[in-house]
UniProtKB/TrEMBL annotation, chains A, B:
It catalyses: a monocarboxylic acid amide + H2O = a monocarboxylate + NH4(+). SUPFAM superfamilies: Amidase signature (AS) enzymes. One of its GO terms (molecular function) is amidase activity. It comes from Dendrothele bispora (strain CBS 962.96). This is amidase. The active site is at K131, S206, S230. It is an enzyme of class 3 (hydrolase). Substrate binds at L180, S206, I227, G228, G229, S230. It holds the Pfam family Amidase. PANTHER family: AMIDASE (EUROFUNG), AMIDASE-RELATED-RELATED. It comes from the Eukaryota. The lineage of its organism: Eukaryota, Fungi, Dikarya, Basidiomycota, Agaricomycotina.
Length: 561, 561
């Protein structure tokens, strides 16, 4: 390398800043001591009334107004772009900015609709944000690695081709942690993304840029990736909806990534949005485009409307949900427990059954995941980082290059032989087999004649914690190993008056005790509270439908109270 | 180990022999010099006229007569069992024999039909043979490893549960090579399986027992496994139909296997039969049983009747097939080329389009497969073999423990690190991506407005070769890496008068020249000639339907000539 890596990183960051239209730069930004900036976009004066109305619309209304030409794509794209730039100034959520290119495409789409009277596709005119690793031809995907700066992608990711054919406009790329293998968002190039509801807290990761951006309504649909919770953790921490689809349901081909070739517990792409309609529109549009004709790892499974109508779940009547209160290793903080309790109450009020889900070997599952990813992770990270000389990050704590121990789960385990990796993978297969049998056997407990329809699970043991303190992704990772589809639903926000510490005398472990001690309501105040609805492998349609049921139950129950 | 492994192996073999009912032992077996024993079951006198009629019935007729009770399951199972025992005495195709157990189940099924008037399921009363590795509770699955002798399986494989629920009767298990990673069939416990059309030739492998058994009509449907051709090679060499489904379409859970945990290019289970109806009945029955509720790796994809009706292939009119004449590495022997020519003529006569398929990077694909499997194979084989002290087999040549070099492809490559394995797996992903794009781009050449509908490919560069001489599985392995569904169709038999050597002056390589020199018509006389119809990943329905079209075209064209 000819240049110091810090110089290269700083130049890239300066270039990013220069790409923001001057008139969208805000001089009166709130001071860092202002923690909750969620209302700032509406009040800062940069957005017109109409732009506020557009960016706060439900996804269904947006799509229908775009398809009918009631709002032009230029209007909608401009509104979201401005709001995204506000979000950037508040939370540092973006990586790549390309206003002219996005608006030029919006003009084309508007002309097409005018000329033909027909929308280009189901996502006509809609701006969509993409996690940095999702390649757009002609734009960089440095993924927070200094060594990858300066290389424009020479192709679109398959997903980008599909989204563009569906009429969508990729309009910004969003921030990530170096390696993507952290549940927070910080790297040496773009820096740290913070939580719009409380900037002293993390936005989560690795799709943390998406979480902050979508939460601030700077994007109607964002695309993240999830290998161990990387869509769901930012969704939960930032209060958006977010789906982790099964392996291969959404095409991944053509993205950059860490640990390429690790195909045993792979990363998947999935959407974040402010409503479930956004999630559904995205998945249906992508699956209807037959992604298996463009990505060999995409599963040949059409969108199944019968499954969406819950044919395998009693047509959606009298469902039985099971709540995972804790994983047998750590008990969640009071706000998370209140979230689960709220959902239980709402589901019972809506006439569904709710039972408890007892965890099966979750700790073994965590270990197996770590063994598989760790088998070659260190070599992978070092190989890329050494090209520029930048250090591999060992903590997400905010101090400059702090020398502290990495958390247990995110430091790669020791490199092993391929044969040893196969033994871990065999263990994984056996755990999946056991879990499937276990789920099927719940038929005896549901009273519906069916096994449990979906699990309601915490997304983390806590709401968004302070930067550097998100040291576990256990409550999400477990479903990655099992390859279960899971959809995050926001439930409430931490209220320091209500979410007081709950006394406990017994603990699963020292870690559990430490976690309990670490809770204090002031720290977490205003952080979103969420749950995830967990279904079976390749059951995206049913998981979306059951999530709608849960979400509607929550909304009705809020209306009641 | 307390006992010499050869003693343990011999005891197991003697026990097997003792399980054959005395009255089914033939005293007048043809001498070893009689090569073609394919007609012997009909003429040996052990089978009644009706048993001959039953065992020579089309699968459709068998299933319908069983469902209507016109033939009892006891009749049908007895007929196939007797014929399987004849096949065993001719070709050494069986491992586990359990006559009483199978007939007891047949009695139950007959009673059920009598009492309820309804068949138990779509395979009611049908005996089905299983490759040795497919666990049946209470029966051994030693898989040719001495160290695994004496352990009854404590569970059914998921497939066995499904087949039994569908009314089928697993009735024999069939022979395999040690490790399963050879395209021939020999192990230290059960010995060698030979080809019923010419016993000096191999039955192929690793499902070689199934190939010989089904070819002799000792089983109406057999189940093999295919990691690199192990269903298709025996099907082709023995003249049966055989399907390699995509990863996860047929549940594999609960089988024993080699290289467990190697889940990048995994083995799949697939059926062999004497007609395509047998293949279809099996796949539809298995998929309709929702295997994803029993095996977490089974794909949630229902049997799709629209895809069977070729909705993605112009509804089956004016298809465009592409013929792979050679792989750019070795040119097939004259009988194989005649097979391809015959298919081309038949398809043209039936009104379809036929173009050439130019291979894309097949040699790189072979190398990548070998690298991935080889990454931990040697450790895997040694670990199991060392338990009994039996040697890991290094050749399929018939001499007793010959010390010769293993063929290039079947000797494991050097063990590597997990990180290195990931690099191979990344290469694999890239090759799959390139091949998919390449296939899609054939739209320009087909004249149908669609890409090529299916590839017609050799199954091997030769018909069944002499024992120990099947040194490549290239023409099948390529489709395993790509995960394409492929169905083998018998076309003809080697005729030493017609299939004379074809002069060649140019060769791809020394290996190609050696292969060309190795052909002489007398050696291969009477060996079956076959092709495979290759479709896309998870396109089993369409591949079955297109194979019916190819098969019908061949039958019509034979009728014409």
């Amino acid at each position: 390398m000819s240049q110091d890596w810090t110089v290269v990183a700083a130049a890239k960051k300066a270039k990013q800043q220069a790409l923001i239209p001057k008139e969208w730069l805000l001089s009166d930004l709130p001071p860092q001591s202002t923690l909750d900036v969620s209302e700032f976009p509406d009040t800062c004066g940069l957005l017109t009334e109409e732009e506020i109305r557009i960016t706060k619309s439900a996804t269904g209304a947006l799509l229908s107004n775009l398809a009918k030409g009631e709002w032009s794509s230029v209007q909608v794209t401009t509104a979201f772009y401005k709001r995204a730039i506000i979000a950037q100034q508040l939370t540092n959520c973006l990586t790549e900015i390309f206003v002219e290119r996005a608006l030029a495409r919006a003009v084309e789409l508007d002309e097409h609709l005018k000329e033909t009277g027909k929308p280009v596709g189901p996502l006509h005119g809609l701006p969509i944000s993409l996690k940095d690793q999702i390649n757009i031809k002609g734009i960089e995907s440095c993924m927070g690695y200094v060594s990858w700066i300066g290389k424009d992608a020479d192709h679109n990711a398959v997903l980008v081709d599909i989204l563009e054919s569906a009429g969508a406009i990729p309009f910004v790329k969003t921030n990530i942690p170096q390696t993507l293998m952290w549940p927070e968002t910080f790297n040496h190039v773009f820096g740290r993304t913070c939580n719009p509801y409380n900037r002293s807290l993390t936005s989560g990761g690795s799709s943390g840029g998406e979480g902050a951006l979508v939460a601030l309504r700077g994007s109607p649909i964002g695309v993240g990736s999830d290998i161990g919770g990387s869509v769901r953790i930012p969704s939960a921490f930032c209060g958006t909806y977010g789906l982790r689809p099964s392996y291969g349901r959404v095409p991944y081909a053509g993205c950059v990534n860490s640990m390429e070739g690790q195909d045993s517990i792979p990363s998947v792409l999935g959407p974040l949005s402010n409503d479930i309609a956004g999630i559904k529109s995205f998945v249906k549009a992508v699956v209807d485009a037959k992604p298996w004709l463009k990505d060999p790892l995409a599963v040949r499974k059409r969108w199944n409307e019968e499954e969406y109508n819950l044919v395998d779940h009693g047509n959606g009547k009298d469902l039985c949900f099971a709540i995972l209160w804790d994983d047998g290793d750590t008990v969640p903080h009071p706000p998370v427990l209140r979230g689960l309790e709220t959902v239980k109450k709402a589901l019972l009020a809506a006439g569904h059954n709710v039972i408890d889900w007892k965890p099966l070997k979750h700790v073994e599952i965590y270990r197996t995941l770590r063994d598989i990813w760790g088998a070659g992770a260190e070599e992978d990270y070092n190989t890329v980082a050494m090209l520029s000389g930048e250090p591999v990050i060992s903590t997400m704590l905010p101090e400059e290059q702090p020398v502290v121990a990495a958390s247990e789960w995110f430091r790669p385990s020791e490199s092993v032989s391929a044969y040893q990796l196969w033994q871990y993978q065999k263990k994984k297969r056996d755990l999946r087999q056991e879990y499937l049998r276990y789920w099927e056997e719940t038929t005896a407990a549901t009273g519906t004649g069916r096994p449990v329809d979906a699990i309601i699970s915490p997304v983390a043991a806590y709401a968004a914690p302070p930067h550097g303190m998100n040291k576990s992704a256990n409550y999400t990772m477990v479903w990655n190993l099992l390859d279960y589809a899971a959809l995050v639903i926001p439930v409430s926000k931490v209220n320091q008056a209500i979410d007081v510490p709950r006394p406990r005398n017994e603990f699963y472990s020292d870690a559990d005790r430490l976690l309990w001690q670490s809770y204090n309501p002031e720290t977490y105040n205003n952080a979103p509270i969420a749950i995830q609805v967990v279904g079976r492998t390749l059951e995206e349609e049913a998981v979306i439908a059951m999530s709608e049921i849960v979400d509607n139950a929550l909304k009705s129950s809020k209306g009641d109270s």
